[in-house]
């Protein structure tokens, strides 16, 4: 049930503080734009940020550097096992 | 999508497998709380490489598996009503109630739609103004905020024929109930990733302190899982017990305030029935009075019937990590995914289903 793929935001709509506006973003899923809700995302994303999605809702957003750093960190971790990253 | 492969590639993970072996210096029993973790651990074959001394048991984190039979009966009774359409996440479709399932009811004419998001259910309600659309809320912290947002949207958009039946549950109370059981000797928790992205990794601190329990919040890919297990083994080995977050790309230390505020606006804590675990105080969420127009229990005036657990099914103990599916005499004999007796076999995230799919020797 839990998908952990960070998806890149390509457009953002709505006012984060006004729930009467439609709070949605478009994300790029393998070249296909998909609409997701932003009502409950922890930090309001901007175009170019990444979001983690659950059941049609973005729940967590991260800026691109952070997303790529996480991915690189895990990769490095599995290749080189730097001690300080695990301790 | 391309990033995902990097997390899954087991060849990248070889050094981590080695490291896990080195990290296990004391025997430890770890509970993976989340059903998605259970499935990921099987799918990646991690059970086959577990070092000696490390034991993994599954916990109560499959939402379908812990849905009580009396709730299932109430769901099915609603689906059977005229001009009612129930909308569900797909996992719930085949779960047995006392005599029936939504799948059987649907084959006999009940209207049951599978949706991906509660917002889809709201869209269905707008398209069918002559029907009452019920969304069956079955899930934990991760799904509750989205359901709350959908109820709020139903109110602001004035959709009167949309209601939610909430059996939404919260994770820490049953964990507390389990951990206070002296028979269940757990040294560490692999804490659920996406529940934690709502409640924050820090939410596990009270449990870690009270029960001297190693806690690591982990993701779902091979590398994520191995890293989490290494951290757990190290904590136990070094007797340095704390909460660690090994899933920072989805989980922060603090809770998700927007989600929490949304939940608090629509829901309030309530006692909740858990299959196999019984009624646990304040472990569930009910819809606040202000939003009772959207509360199926109020609209239908539902009184939950007494339900019997299926005879011989060990799900209750399996959800507590006390029995393994192989100890159930019905496993793979009378109880199979095609013909499930208990919810642990129905849900794709259930422990019995995982053992059936990935082999009984594990
Ligand atoms: S094998 Fe079937 S009957 Fe046995 S515990 Fe699992 S779900 Fe219940």
Describe the structure.
The complex is a heterodimer of chains A (87) and B (362). In chain A, 24% of the residues lie in helices and 34% in strands. Chain A has 87 residues and is of the alpha+beta class. Mean pLDDT of chain A is 81; it is low at 81-87. Chain B has a domain at 69-170 and 255-300: 3-Layer(aba) Sandwich (Rossmann fold). Chain B is 37% helix and 18% strand. The model of chain B has no long low-confidence stretch (mean pLDDT 90). Classes of the chains: A alpha+beta (87), B alpha/beta (362). At the A-B interface, strand 5 and helix 1 of A face helix 1, helix 2, helix 6, helix 7 and helix 9 of B. Iron/sulfur cluster binds at residues 313-315, 318, 325, 328, 330-331, 335, 341-342, 344-345, 352 of chain B. Iron/sulfur cluster binds next to helix 14 and helix 15 of chain B.
Largest sheet of chain A: 5 strands, antiparallel
For the termini of chain B, the CA-CA separation is 30 Å
| Range of helix content of chain A | 10-25%
Compute the gyration radius of chain B: what is it? 21 Å
Tell me which ligands are bound.
Answer: iron/sulfur cluster
> What's the main sheet of chain B like?
5 strands, parallel
> Overall pLDDT of chain B, averaged?
90
Cα Rg of chain A: 15 Å
Number of separate strands of chain B: 11
């Amino acid at each position: 049930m839990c998908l952990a793929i960070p998806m890149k935001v390509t457009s953002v709509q709505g006012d984060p503080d006004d729930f009467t506006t439609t709070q949605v973003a478009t994300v790029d899923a393998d070249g296909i734009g998909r609409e997701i809700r932003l009502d409950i995302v922890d930090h309001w994303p901007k175009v170019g940020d990444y979001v983690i999605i659950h059941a049609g809702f973005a729940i967590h957003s991260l800026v691109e550097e952070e997303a790529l750093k996480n991915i690189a960190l895990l990769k490095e971790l599995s290749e080189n096992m730097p001690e300080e990253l695990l301790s | 999508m391309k990033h995902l492969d990097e997390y899954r590639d087991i060849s990248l993970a070889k050094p981590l497998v080695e490291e896990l072996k080195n990290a296990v210096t004391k025997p430890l029993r770890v509970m993976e709380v989340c059903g998605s973790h259970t499935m990921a651990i099987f799918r990646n074959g991690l059970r086959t490489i577990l070092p000696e001394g490390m034991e993994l048991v599954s916990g109560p984190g499959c939402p379908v598996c812990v849905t009580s039979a009396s709730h299932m009966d109430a769901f099915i009774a609603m689906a059977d009503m005229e001009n009612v359409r129930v909308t569900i996440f797909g996992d719930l479709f085949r779960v047995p109630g006392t005599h029936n399932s939504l799948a059987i009811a649907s084959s006999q004419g009940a209207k049951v739609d599978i949706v991906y998001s509660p917002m889809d259910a709201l869209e269905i309600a707008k398209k069918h103004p002559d029907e009452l659309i019920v969304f069956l809320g079955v899930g934990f912290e991760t799904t509750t905020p989205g359901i709350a947002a959908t109820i709020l949207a139903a109110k602001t958009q004035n959709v009167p024929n949309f209601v939610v039946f909430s059996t939404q549950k919260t994770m820490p109370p049953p964990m507390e109930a389990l951990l206070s059981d002296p028979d269940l000797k757990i040294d560490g928790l692999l804490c659920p990733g996406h529940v934690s992205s709502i409640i924050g990794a820090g939410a596990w601190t009270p449990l870690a302190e009270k029960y001297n329990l190693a806690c690591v919040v982990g993701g779902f890919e091979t590398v994520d899982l191995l890293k989490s297990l290494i951290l757990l083994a190290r904590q136990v080995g070094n007797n340095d017990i704390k909460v660690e977050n090994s899933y920072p790309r989805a989980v922060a230390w603090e809770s998700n305030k927007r989600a929490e505020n949304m939940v608090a606006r629509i829901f309030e804590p309530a006692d909740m029935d858990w299959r196999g675990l019984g009624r646990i105080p304040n472990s569930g969420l009910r819809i606040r009075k202000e939003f009772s127009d959207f509360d199926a229990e109020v609209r239908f005036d539902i009184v939950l019937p007494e339900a019997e657990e299926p005879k011989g099914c060990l799900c209750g103990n399996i959800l507590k990590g006390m029995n393994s599916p192989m100890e159930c005499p019905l496993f793979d004999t009378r109880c199979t995914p095609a013909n499930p007796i208990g919810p642990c076999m129905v849900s794709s995230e259930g422990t019995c289903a995982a053992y059936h799919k990935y082999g009984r020797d594990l």
